[in-house]
Design brief:
Layout (H helix, E strand, L loop, with lengths): L1 E5 L12 H13 L4 E4 L2 E2 L8 H17 L5 E4 L2 E3 L4 H7 L11 E5 L9 H10 L3 E5 L5 H4 L2 H9 L3 E5 H4 L5 H12 L5 E3 L13 H11 L1 H7 L2 H7 L19 H6 L5
Parallel strand pairs: 1-2, 2-4, 3-5, 5-6, 6-7, 7-8, 8-9
Helix pairs in contact: 9-10
Length: 264
């Protein structure tokens, strides 16, 4: 499996604190079947200044430590980039690191509780610049929860969605779990990732959530959400996801069918 959303880099955000914890974190991931993990520290000006150079150097140090500890885990650079002005330019100049440092795929974060502004235009501009947008945990974003049509518009513009393991497992409450199930059933999310922060409550584990996802989309498609689709995004390719499922038309009443007949 491939986990494209983790906070394994020590001491750079609200995730792992120490290098020793990062090693333990990596061992948990390997034990769960994860073979590739992307370090995605928060990147938000005024809060976490994790630009491309800082992430690359942090990943290089962690790789050396994991190699010394014989931990068989591939760690790639990335970031969870908060919505900001001029994002295409920020991607180009390295202030907004991309997944796998591919220069093409952006893990985009919106505020959990505050309503977003001008998101459609930002996504449109990123797509024009050749940047693929992967929304981080859309199932936990209030702006999407309050009106699913907003998120459906993002998908229509060519964006993709990353659902968090804990959301599928009920760790963030019943309403988030129900919204997660709706997004899964409608094929509006495309990648499963842990958004793991530590070795305790938010661990880098995916297998249990993949099994839950299989109950909504089938085992084969759930497996693709944990391997094939994230690999495509890391390679800078468009994943071959299924299109969103259209809701069935509302059932017409007997009178509606009668009066809607041709010639009446």
């Amino acid at each position: 499996m491939i986990d494209v959303h983790t906070h394994i880099l020590p001491g750079v955000d609200d995730g792992v604190r120490t290098e020793d914890e990062a090693v333990a974190f990596a061992k948990i991931a390997v034990a769960d079947g994860i073979r590739t993990l992307v370090a995605t520290p928060h990147c938000r000006e005024g809060f976490y200044l994790n630009d491309r150079d800082a992430v690359l150097s942090g990943v290089a140090r962690l790789r050396e430590r994991l190699a010394a500890e014989s931990v068989p885990l591939e760690v790639l650079p990335g970031a969870e980039v908060h919505l900001a002005d001029e994002l295409p330019a920020r991607v180009k100049d390295g202030r907004a690191p991309t997944l796998g440092d591919n220069g093409r795929t952006l893990l985009l974060e919106l505020s959990m509780s505050q309503y977003a502004i001008d998101v459609e235009n930002v996504v449109f501009q990123l797509r024009l610049a050749g940047v693929q947008v992967l929304f981080a945990h859309p199932e936990r974003i209030r702006w999407f929860q309050d009106d699913l049509r907003r998120y459906e518009e993002m998908i229509r513009l060519g964006a993709f969605g990353q659902i968090t393991t804990g959301s599928l497992l009920g760790d963030f409450g019943e309403s988030t779990q129900e919204f997660s199930e709706e997004l899964m059933r409608k094929r509006l999310v495309h990648v499963i990732a842990s958004d793991s922060h530590n070795t305790r409550g938010r661990r880098p584990e995916m297998s249990a959530a993949v099994r839950v996802a299989a109950t909504f989309v089938g085992e084969a498609y759930a497996a693709r959400m944990a391997d094939e689709f994230p690999r495509a995004l890391l390679d800078g390719r468009e994943p071959a996801v299924e299109p969103p499922l259209e809701p069935p038309p509302p059932k017409r009443s007997f009178l509606g069918r009668w009066f809607g007949r041709d010639g009446t």
